[in-house]
């Protein structure tokens, strides 16, 4: 495991911001900070300017969009002490107008965002560009430590909402404690590799040190970015970071990722079965509402909690996409554990690790089974996953599925083999013939008292319902039903997969 952790560390280093780029970003941040501090505002006074998000948490990773690396995102808060009653539009325009007073910033300023003003720093000297998002805010007057009031613009209407980036940072910091020995060793590595930037060891900023927790989050964020490169509904980083930080107990990168995956999918399966979740303050579903609370709001009235999953409750595609991604992360991390080849993680980075990829290892294993006269049903299911992802040729998978049927020794194993053979065609987008449909219906009628066959046959026919899926998971809880590739056929309009709140 240690060697694979080392590979993951190497990968995260290639995804991280370099010391020289960090120094460039810091210089730009400080220039904007000084400009904003010197401004005069109708809505408030005494500006406090500070970082929030991944740059401050040490989980920054270069984004990946439309199949290529994109520019870094830097999040900056401009917090004013409020004057008398202030409208959100006044605050928002105060900060925007101050930026526009600078001819350079006026040229770099993007269109007004829902919450932020964005300065675009384009790449230069073969270095990545930056988006600097400036969040206008006022210090909250409700007695809650570090909480701020922020603006939100939707269809030309401004409103107030609340956030607590300082409180969140302090919570994360309390969960991500470095030992002195770790700090010195990490600083030494950075110093030795960047003597052209740092004169002495003490010049290395602690903001560039990365714990296993931070590196695991970086890996997962990159995996998410690649997975959603050409898709909508990408999960926001704060949800990934919050859940991971809550449940992490290990110092191994792989184990930190597995802890996140196992916790999330356990909650997901429980939700599918029961239609609700026993609240744990991390990932909750209560009274039809998804909640990932800001941990610093613990103990507050529900109406005052900052809910990072708030948008999930107005768009079912968002939680569906999140859980779909976590299932793929599980498949990919398991493949990487077996192969030790970084390409199996689908991070679109330089490949690190020797030996065959997981797909090649699996094909060899299946071939050995065939030569030994053995069945390969479990391997066939993994091959189908790889076929869906375009990593193994479908004709090879079809031959393996046909062989599983040919060597089946009884009716039940024959029926299982039929289901798997027909799902290969369905995953390939091949329409089933009338004869095939009749064959599936025969299998269904013969096994009508088995929730597994009811679910699988209806998935093949395109007539599966949530209740069928739920019943199967409930009755066969000891099996990883959600790991079966046939589940990936469940694709109703709107991608609204498995919605307990819609129970009759």
Describe the SSE topology.
Blueprint: H1 2-15, H2 19-37, E1 44-52, H3 54-57, E2 64-65, E3 68-69, E4 72-82, H4 88-100, H5 103-108, E5 117-121, E6 130-139, E7 148-154, E8 157-163, H6 165-175, H7 180-193, H8 212-227, H9 237-247, H10 253-274, E9 284-286, E10 289-291, H11 317-339, H12 358-372, H13 377-388, H14 394-406, H15 411-427, H16 434-446, H17 451-461, H18 466-475
Parallel strand pairs: 4-6
Antiparallel strand pairs: 1-4, 2-3, 5-6, 6-7, 7-8, 9-10
Helix pairs in contact: 1-8, 8-9, 8-10, 9-10, 10-11, 12-13, 13-14, 13-15, 14-15, 16-17, 17-18
Structure at a glance:
The chain is an alpha+beta fold and 504 residues long.
Describe the structure.
The chain has 504 residues and is α+β, with helices and mostly antiparallel strands. It contains 18 helices and 10 strands. The chain has helices spanning 2-15, 19-37, 54-57, 88-100, 103-108, 165-175, 180-193, 212-227, 237-247, 253-274, 317-339, 358-372, 377-388, 394-406, 411-427, 434-446, 451-461, 466-475, and strands at residues 44-52, 64-65, 68-69, 72-82, 117-121, 130-139, 148-154, 157-163, 284-286, 289-291. The strands form 3 sheets. Strands 1, 4, 5, 6, 7 and 8 form a 6-stranded mixed sheet that branches. It has a two-stranded antiparallel sheet with strand order 2-3. It has a two-stranded antiparallel ribbon with strand order 9-10. Strand 7 (148-154) and strand 8 (157-163) form a beta hairpin. Helix 14 (394-406) packs antiparallel against helix 15 (411-427) and helix 17 runs antiparallel to helix 18. The longest helix is centred in the middle third of the chain and has 23 residues, at 317-339. The relative contact order is 0.08.
């Amino acid at each position: 495991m240690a060697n694979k952790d080392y590979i993951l560390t190497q990968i995260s280093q290639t995804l991280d911001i370099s010391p020289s780029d960090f120094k460039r970003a810091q210089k730009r941040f400080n220039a904007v900070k000084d400009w904003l501090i010197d401004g005069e505002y109708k809505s408030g006074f005494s500006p406090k300017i500070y970082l929030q998000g991944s740059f401050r948490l040490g989980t920054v990773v270069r984004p990946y969009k439309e199949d290529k690396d994109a520019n870094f995102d830097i999040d900056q808060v401009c917090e004013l002490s409020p004057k008398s009653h202030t409208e959100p539009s006044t605050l928002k325009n105060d900060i925007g107008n101050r930026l526009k007073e600078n001819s350079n910033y006026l040229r770099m300023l993007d269109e007004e965002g829902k919450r932020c003003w964005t300065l675009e720093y384009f790449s230069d000297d073969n270095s990545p560009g930056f988006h600097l998002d400036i969040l206008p805010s006022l210090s909250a007057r409700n007695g809650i430590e570090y909480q701020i009031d922020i603006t939100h613009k939707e269809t030309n209407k401004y409103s107030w909402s609340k956030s607590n980036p300082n409180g969140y940072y302090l919570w994360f910091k309390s969960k991500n404690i470095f030992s002195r020995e770790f700090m010195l060793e990490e600083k030494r590595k950075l110093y030795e590799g960047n003597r052209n930037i740092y004169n002495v060891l003490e010049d290395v900023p602690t903001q560039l040190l990365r714990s296993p927790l931070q590196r695991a989050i970086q890996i997962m964020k990159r995996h998410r970015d690649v997975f959603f490169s050409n898709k909508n509904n990408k999960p926001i980083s704060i949800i990934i970071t919050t859940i991971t930080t809550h449940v992490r107990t290990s110092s191994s990168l792989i184990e930190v990722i597995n802890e996140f995956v196992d916790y999330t999918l356990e909650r997901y399966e429980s939700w599918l079965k029961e239609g609700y979740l026993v609240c744990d303050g991390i990932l909750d579903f209560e009274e039809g509402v998804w909640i990932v609370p800001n941990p610093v709001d613990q103990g507050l009235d529900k109406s005052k909690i900052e809910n990072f999953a708030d948008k999930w409750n107005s768009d079912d595609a968002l939680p569906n996409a999140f859980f779909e991604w976590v299932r793929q992360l599980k498949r990919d991390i398991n493949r990487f554990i077996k192969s030790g080849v970084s390409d199996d993680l689908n991070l679109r980075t330089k490949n690190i690790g020797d030996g065959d990829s997981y797909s090649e290892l699996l094909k060899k294993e299946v071939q050995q089974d065939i030569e030994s006269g053995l069945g390969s049903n479990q391997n066939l299911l993994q091959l189908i996953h790889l076929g869906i992802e375009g990593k193994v040729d479908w004709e090879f998978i079809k031959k393996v599925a046909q062989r599983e049927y040919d060597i089946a020794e009884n009716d039940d194993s024959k029926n299982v083999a039929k289901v798997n053979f027909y799902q290969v065609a369905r995953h390939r987008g091949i329409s089933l013939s009338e004869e095939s449909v009749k064959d599936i219906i025969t299998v269904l009628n013969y096994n009508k008292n088995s929730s597994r066959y009811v679910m699988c046959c209806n998935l093949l026919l395109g007539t599966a319902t949530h209740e069928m899926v739920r019943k199967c998971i409930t009755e066969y809880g000891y099996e990883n039903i959600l790991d079966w590739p046939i589940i990936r056929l469940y694709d109703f309009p709107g991608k609204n997969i498995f919605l307990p709140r819609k129970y009759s």
